[in-house]
UniProtKB/TrEMBL annotation:
InterPro entries: Cyt_c-like_dom_sf, PHM/PNGase_F_dom_sf. This is Cytochrome c domain-containing protein. SUPFAM superfamilies: Cytochrome c, PHM/PNGase F. One of its GO terms (molecular function) is heme binding.
């Protein structure tokens, strides 16, 4: 059985060797200090031939495949950014229990915005009904159903999902080793805008999605001089050193210096 997110516990080298330590303790006549450990890993769907399936009418092609196409296949297709494809029944069947686990824990689809803040347009996520549907299907033995009732297969190409962009910012390339892990790469690029712009939508596209899993993108600005309180403004933000917000000293300074203006903007 699995317990926990395996990705959160992945390391280059193990820090402890519990089995080796236990064997050495037994051979030396010492007490084994760690008698059991909690296993972290992926849930594996192993059908039990002697167990009767739960009598439900949910099937993969009719009820589950449309959910995967709408919420998962953008990354989990061949050549996509996901670590494996979920385009066929055979592919999904092997990951069925893991899929149920990650959607129940809301680790998938990935969406890190805090729902307590409010409603976000185009937010990723499954409804409670959809999550229960996947869980019931897995508990029923993940039946395939009639392939004739499957939705049309999706096709994937290199075109941008948002259509032709108004502006393209290219990042410099860098070499990725064949093995091992690399630290975060911090890359600063200029927008080359001559005036302020409203951004309606943005999309990051990698020419090697099998290597680049995701990016964290921030807007940075040069240090400005004194500005009027009613001008568009935000505290300086250094994502490398302060991932939670603006430097405390600058933000606090602006608050003190313009306290009298802030009262006019309180709502």
């Amino acid at each position: 059985t699995s317990s926990g997110n395996v990705g959160a516990f992945r390391r280059q080298e193990p820090r402890r060797h519990h089995v080796q330590d236990a064997l050495e303790a037994v051979l030396a006549g010492r007490e084994v200090k760690v008698k059991s450990t909690k296993a972290f890993g992926c849930a594996i769907h192993l059908p039990n031939p002697g167990e009767a399936p739960v009598p439900v009418k949910l099937t993969f092609h009719q009820h589950i495949e449309p959910l995967l196409q709408q919420n998962c296949l953008e990354c989990h297709h061949k050549g996509g950014g996901g670590p494996f494809a979920l385009e066929t029944y055979k592919q999904v069947k092997g990951w069925a229990k893991m899929i149920a686990e990650v959607v129940e824990e809301k680790r998938m689809p990935p969406w890190n915005a805090d729902p307590k803040v409010g409603h976000f347009r185009n937010a990723r996520g499954l409804s409670a009904v959809e999550i229960q549907r996947i869980s019931n299907w897995v508990n029923a033995g993940a039946p395939q159903g009639n392939p004739a009732k499957a939705p049309p297969q999706l096709t994937w190409d290199t075109d941008l999902g948002l259509g032709k962009p108004d502006h393209v910012i290219k990042l410099p390339s860098f070499d990725v080793p064949a093995e091992g892990r690399i630290p975060y790469r911090y890359i600063r690029v200029k927008t080359n805008f001559k005036e302020n712009k409203w951004v309606r939508a943005a999309e990051f596209v990698s020419n090697t999605p099998e290597l680049v899993h995701h990016t964290l993108t921030f807007l940075d600005r040069p240090r400005w001089g004194r500005r009027e309180a009613d001008e568009p403004w935000m505290p300086r933000f250094n994502p490398i050193s302060v991932l939670q917000g603006a430097p405390r000293n600058e933000y606090g300074y602006w608050m003190r210096r313009n306290q009298k203006y802030l009262r006019d903007f309180m709502v």
